[in-house]
Structures are given as C-alpha cells and as structure tokens.
C-alpha cells in the first residue's frame, strides 16, 4: 500500500514538472515572437548640405588688366578764349616740337594789337616833344631866362612821356603774345592720343583740347583694389603680356601708385614701367600684369553661411565619416555672399555650408548634397 502511494506521488511530480517546462517554453516562444515583431527605431541624424573644397580653387593668382600709356602725357590748351578755325592733326598724328596743332580766330586780338601799336607811336611822339622842350628850356635855364622851378616842370613832363612809351610798349608786347597764343603748338615730339575740341567750337583759356604722348618710355596703367596694394608694392618684378602680341612677355616694375582711390571705382591707379619694350608695343594696347615668379598662397571661397564664429576665431565644421569636426580658419576679403579662406582648409575637405550654428562638434550627421 505504501509503495502504491509512493508511485502516485512521483507520477504527480513528474506531470507537474512537465507542465512547468511546457509553460516556460510557450512563454519563451511568445516573448520571442513579440520582440521580433516590434520595429527597431533608427537613429535620428540631422541632414546637412556640404561643400567639397576642390583643388582647382587653390593657388589663386592675381592679374590686372591695363592699357599701354606714355609716361609723359601733355594735355595742351589755348591760353586765350576764342573760336577754333583750323585743326591740323588727327588721332595718332606724329608731331614735332613747334608744329601747329590748332588755330584760333585772331581777328579781335589783331585789332587789340593794332590799337596797342598806335598807342606806342603816340607815346613815342609825346616823348620826342617832351625831349625837345626839355632841351630848349635847359638852354634858357643856363642863360638865366627862366627859373629852376619852371625847368623842373619840363623835366617831369619828359619823364612822364618816357614812362608812357614803356607802358604802351608793354601793352603792345602783351597783345602780340595773345596773338601768338591763337596758335596751339606742340612743346615736345610725340603722338596725338586725344582730341577734345573741333573746328568751330568756342573754347576757354586753359581748356584741354589736344593730348600728346611724348616720345620715350611706355607704361601700363592698371587699377588695383586696396587689399592688394601691399602685395604689389613688395613685388620685385612683374610680368606683362599683351592681348595683341601673344608671343611677347615683358618685365615691368611699379613706378607710381596713386595716393587716393578713384571715387567711382574705389581702386587705385598704378603705373607699371616697361623695361625695354619693342616697337610693336603701341599706345592703347590691352595688357595683362601679373606677379613674376610669385607663388600665391592657397585660397578658397566658401559661403558666408559656412562660418562658425567662436569668439574672435572664425571656423568651419568639417565632415569626416559623417562626424563633425570644428576647424579654425584664416579668412580673407569678402565677395558676393562668399568669403575667402587663406589658411585652414585643404583640397578634398568637406565642410558644412549652411545651418552650422544648429550643429555641434562631434555630432553625427547625414549628408544631403553639395552646394554649387
């Protein structure tokens, strides 16, 4: 009887353990099924636009377009006011010293000269009369016929007549000079580069009507922005090429820099002297001036929106394996919505081009695309 009870007790425990094992197995299967069906949420990464720094944007050199000019350019003008009646030169005419370039109507000045000449004759006649009277009254004074006071009056009249002759002669000389001024002549040999008045035009004294480029040195005139002046001043030598002469390259040197910027262009006029220019270099030719043998420092243009300002140090966010790294940079001049980077970037770097102040260093991001 006891053995039968013992067998029943063992059978109950066996069934209980079997039911427990089946329950655990079902629970594990259900849990696995539940977790397998639950979706895994992906990591939320901010999307950024970037710019790839290209190697073609490096090594930026500076060249300046200019024009061949003469070192000495004379703007000639009449010294009197009048009407131009004759023009003897054209643009490009070669002139010598003393050549008459233009002629002015001299009728009125000629009348003035004639009037001054008549005044000279009149004054000389008065002087001769005063001289005769003085000679006669000197004899009367010597004979005691007149007083010394009377004699002094004739001496004074003679002196006044002599002064009147000098005055009339000076006026005549002045009028003659005015007559000569109606002819515009070249002071030095050269080439006519500009004519700003035509026959029949009334011009005032001092108004430039003809520009003559004197024979001699040739220069290139260029316009330089203020941020490049120091570089140009320190340049030992410049290279000059010509659009019309592709096989000609000349050496140049900065001779003169304007002390003030042009009020319209805000650039400075710079004159570059040409060393031993050939005869084929003509006035007015288009030239290009570049630094000779200079190695321009690498420079890149990036959008202003890519700047990440931390205190006084500008920086950019560089993307490496989708992780942001803050890198300080050295900036240059501003452009149209861009800024030049002089140091801190290399070709192949990828930077965030917008929304940089919403990001932090070390943050993982997703690249959407490059800016143009």
From TrEMBL:
It comes from Sporomusa ovata. PANTHER family: HLYD FAMILY OF SECRETION PROTEINS (PTHR30469:SF15), MULTIDRUG RESISTANCE PROTEIN MDTA (PTHR30469). Belongs to the membrane fusion protein (MFP) (TC 8.A.1) family. Residues 78-213 form the Multidrug resistance protein MdtA-like barrel-sandwich hybrid domain. The keyword Lipid biosynthesis does not apply. GO terms for cellular component: efflux pump complex. InterPro entries: Beta-barrel_RND_2, MdtA-like_BSH, MdtA-like_HH, RND_pump_MFP. Pfam families: Beta-barrel_RND_2, BSH_RND, HH_MFP_RND. Keywords: Signal. This is Probable Co/Zn/Cd efflux system membrane fusion protein. Residues 220-293 form the CusB-like beta-barrel domain. NCBIfam families: RND_mfp. Residues 115-182 form the Multidrug resistance protein MdtA-like alpha-helical hairpin domain. One of its GO terms (molecular function) is efflux transmembrane transporter activity. The keyword Iron does not apply. Residues 1-31 form the signal peptide. Gene3D superfamilies: 2.40.30.170, 2.40.420.20, 2.40.50.100, Helix hairpin bin. It comes from the Bacteria.
